Amino acid sequence: MKRLSIAIGFLIIIVLLLILYIIVVQTQLRRINHQLENRLTGDTRQPVRVELINHELSQLTSNINKCFKAEETLRLDCVREEKQFKELIANISHDLRTPLTAIRGYQQLMEKGQLTDEQRKRLGIAQKHAEQLGHLVDHFFEYSYLLNSELKPQLERINLTNLVTECLAGYVSSFEEHGLTLSFTETPPIFIMADKEMTFRIIQNLLRNCLTHAAGNVEVKLTAFQTAIIFIKNPVENTSQIDIKRLFDRFYTADKSRSKTTGLGLAIVKILAEEMGGNVSADLCKNQLTIQVEFQLIKN
């Protein structure tokens, strides 16, 4: 009987020790989880630590720390490569502008000289290509500027209706030269809180995108409800090649030849809109592409 009591006592002690051990392990697991949450939600880069002498748990934390170290190395590599990429874009845009200015200057000198009709025709073609190249370089230059500068939008009360109307009026002749009709649905004045220059550049890039890619008439519309929205709708060709999810990515273009566009125009629109607290999106229904840009609406 006495031996049975002793055995039961030992069993109780062993059970208590096991319960204590489980409690300690659970406590360590909670601490590990807390440290992981701090890394995910905070700025800490501290490795995960464990105080319990347990081989499996120690191995787990060691592997977690190895993953964190590999992830940190990859992150730093990406930051360095992104910085180098920005510098490359800035250098390319600057290097392209210098010879392009010289080309345009010589073309102007040739235009003033005595040329035959055939020579003048060829010069006109060269000037047209130089103009296209100029637009591409401008996109590179603008994009590199946005990447390498700290944008500080000067937000003010803007009449979006008037700004869109003025910008559209300046592009009517360009659309006519491309055989396109530009229609605008008139609306009462819509006021937004935005940077006027940035908003103007957004509208310009949207219209330039239409000039390059539209396969038919372009429709522009403004709405105001919770936000103010610019809608630009136009038919497009080769819809199967257009990836809506990537439409605002830098250098993305459905034109695989990449001869007419850098794919930066809509990327610039996205950067400028988001800097002012707005948003961009696109929708493709059959062959109709609709791009919309949202702004902060000022309600009267």
Automatic annotation (TrEMBL):
TM segment ranges: 6-25
Cellular component GO terms held in the UniProt record: plasma membrane
Record localization: Membrane
InterPro entries: HATPase_C_sf (IPR036890), HATPase_dom (IPR003594), His_kinase_dom (IPR005467), HisK_dim/P_dom (IPR003661), HisK_dim/P_sf (IPR036097), HssS/ArlS-like (IPR050398), Sig_transdc_His_kin-like_C (IPR004358)
Topology class, membrane: Multi-pass membrane protein
Gene3D superfamilies: 1.10.287.130, Histidine kinase-like ATPase, C-terminal domain
Enzyme class: transferase
Residue ranges of every copy of the Histidine kinase domain listed in the record: 91-299
Catalyzed reactions: ATP + protein L-histidine = ADP + protein N-phospho-L-histidine
Pfam families, A to Z: HATPase_c (PF02518), HisKA (PF00512)
Keyword terms, alphabetized: Kinase, Membrane, Phosphoprotein, Transferase, Transmembrane, Transmembrane helix, Two-component regulatory system
EC number: 2.7.13.3
Gene Ontology MF terms in the entry: phosphorelay sensor kinase activity
Protein's recorded name: histidine kinase
Originating species: Ruminiclostridium papyrosolvens C7
